[in-house]
Amino acid sequence: MNHFSVSSLKTFARCPREFHYRYDLGLESLEKGLDLEFGLFTHFYLQTRFAGFDFKDSIGAAQVNTPLSDYWLAIAKVVLEEYENLQDIGAHYQPEVVEGSFELTIGKYRYKGTIDLLANRGGEYVLVDHKTTKSKDLSAFMDYRTFDPQLQLYAYACEHFFKKPVRKMYYNVIRRPLLKQKNIEHFPQFLERIRDNIQSGGYFAEIPVETNDLLQYQAICDLNEYADMIEMGHRPRNAASCRSFGRACDFVPVCSGEVENPELASDLYQVRVRK
Ligand code: SF4
Predict the structure, then answer these.
(1) To the nearest whole number, what is the mean pLDDT of the chain?
(2) Which residues line the pocket of ligand 1, CB cutoff 6 A?
(3) CA–CA gap between residue 107 and residue 87 (Å, rounded)
(4) How many CB atoms lie within 10 A of CB 45?
(5) How confident is the model at residue 92 (pLDDT cuts 50, 70, 90)?
(6) Mapped to the 3 state alphabet, what secondary structure does 218-269 carry?
(7) In Å, what is the CA distance from 103 to each residue of 1, 59, 108, 153?
(8) Residue 89 pLDDT > 90, yes or no?
(9) Dihedral sign, CA of 19, 98, 89, 128?
(10) pLDDT digits (tens, 9 = 90+) for 111-135
(11) Pick the residue with more confidence: 32 or 127?
């Protein structure tokens, strides 16, 4: 039986050619880019924080695992302090499962994935998926949420693997500040300006994502079809996906013809060690 990670199928749904580079060839970009670094740091922070560690230890753990430069570490601390103040996470969610991995056989395929957070809120289970963005415009998340097969499969896994059925899901969105330090401004003043800007709103959002049996069934059908297409060897490009959520695909140089063979472009890509 073939195994698929849900994130690989999500990549295939976004662009089959990107799936080919990432999963057939195992390539990953050497250049992470600030957006991804900030996203990984924030994700690790939230994972550690919801696992029960305090703010300082969670920041420290994130910095060890997904390090930022000193400049961005100071900014991330301000963002996450304000996240704690404004979102009141302790009151919001009582964690039940943090970074919970699952494997499920559905039809002829076995799917594996990792949920960010399954929590109890007000006596009911809610599923939370952490997201970071640099865009003020959250409409991309709003548009996408109805068709997010990953989250629907995670909801299915909550019921059938973790035995905690959810009927409410949320994107927990944190925005990276784009403010620039002015010439006349000392760094602590700059950080305070960021703090003021965050307090004026628009940096954090909890976007509800609907789930029910029909939506989960449709998502599973989609995932099965993606898996079928992978097996059949379909790998077309999808130009509509070259830039999404404000970020360019790592493989633009390859698809645009600048790089002829990504497997030989060792200054741009490395082969991921398969687990
Ligand atoms: S650059 Fe565009 S077409 Fe090429 S792999 Fe990435 S998303 Fe697909």
Answers:
(1) 92
(2) 15, 17-18, 237-239, 241-242, 249, 251-252, 255
(3) 40
(4) 27
(5) confident
(6) HHHHHHHHHHHHHHHCCCCCCHHHCEECCEECCCHHHHCCCCCCHHHCCCCE
(7) 13, 30, 13, 11
(8) no
(9) positive
(10) 999 999 999 988 899 999 999 998 8
(11) 127
What is the pLDDT averaged over residues 31-52? Answer: 92
Residue nearest ligand 1's atom 2 by CA: 242
**What is the rounded average pLDDT of the residues 204-211?**
92
Q: How many CB atoms lie within 10 A of CB 7?
A: 14
Q: Which long-range contacts (CB under 8 A, 24 or more apart) does 213-216 make?
A: 215/152, 216/152, 216/153, 216/155, 216/156
Structural domains in the chain plus CATH codes: 2-271 (3.90.320.10)
Q: Are strands 109-121 and 2-5 parallel, antiparallel or unpaired?
A: parallel
Contact 98, 47 (CB under 8 A): yes
Task: Give the C-alpha separation, 6 to 196, whole Å.
Answer: 39
Statement: residue 230 has pLDDT above 90: yes
Q: Any idea which residue has 């599973």 for tokens? A: 220
Instruction: Identify the residue with better confidence: 6 or 139.
Output: 6
Closest residue by Cα to atom 3, ligand 1, is: 237
- The Å distance, Cα 46 to ligand 1 centre, comes to 30
Closest C-alpha to 250, from 16, 32, 39: 32
Query: E strands within the chain?
Result: 2-5, 27-29, 94-106, 109-121, 124-133, 168-175, 204-210, 243-244, 247-248, 269-271
Q: Which of 10, 11, 12, 18 to mutate to test the pocket of ligand 1 (most atoms within 8 A of CB)?
A: 18
Residue 174: pLDDT band (50, 70, 90) is very high
